[in-house]
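Hi C.,

You asked whether I'd gotten around to modeling the 262-residue construct. I have! Everything is below, sequence then structure, no commentary in between.
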Amino acid sequence: MNFIKYIKDKINYILIFIIYCMIIISYLYAMKINKNAIIIIISISFIFFIIAFLITYFKKNYYIKNIEKIIDNLDEKYLISEIMEKPRREENLAYYRILQRANKSMIENVNKVRTSQKDYKEYIESWVHEIKIPITSAKLLCENNKSEITNKIDEEIEEINNFVEQALFYARLEKVSNDFMIRKINLGEVIKNVLSRNKKIMIQNNMKVELNNVDVMAYTDEKWLEFILNQIIINSIKYKKELGAEIFIRSKGKCRKHKFIY
């Protein structure tokens, strides 16, 4: 709490004290009290006023700093009224009760939003799993009835499948820690699986992929890595500026040096 601003906030009290001192001086002067006595009386009053003023400032400043320290350590800062110390002064207690009521309303709204989001994400996950059945069936029909038209349809279905996968992974973003399964995998195999999924659309766009030093064992989540690589490949195809564009995928570190051209 800034001391100068605190003085400005209390300017009314300071003015009242000054007026009080002027009245006391006028009264004592009218009573023909010795000037030195008047100066001593006013000086004592001024000293007590300053002491009371400073004590009040430091107490309030200490109280506010404690609250700031508590809120800095809170992840959900709107819960401050639940753990802060209950004030003793009636004025502060009134503000405390108002803050509690406001925070209670906020917590209720947050819980409603969380419940709504949870229901929506569960619906999205359920919808994705359901929609994958007709997508898989449609791809099988295209595979069993190959023609120029079914090849085009299959490409569009694969694009739909990519969007569906994207929706599923975004729905699971808040549950990443629960959905993660870290294990040792071969990066080259994961990359080849992703490229295989997008092989037709890359051929259609006359795109090449160069792999350097990807035959590496690493610890990661295979599913999430495939998703990220798939998004990179799709966006590279989508935003390429010319035909015959190339994608380069390399790894750094200790690995067997192999080179693959797709």
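If it helps when you're writing up: The beta strands are 183-186, 208-212, 217-220, 246-250, 259-261.

Thanks,
B.
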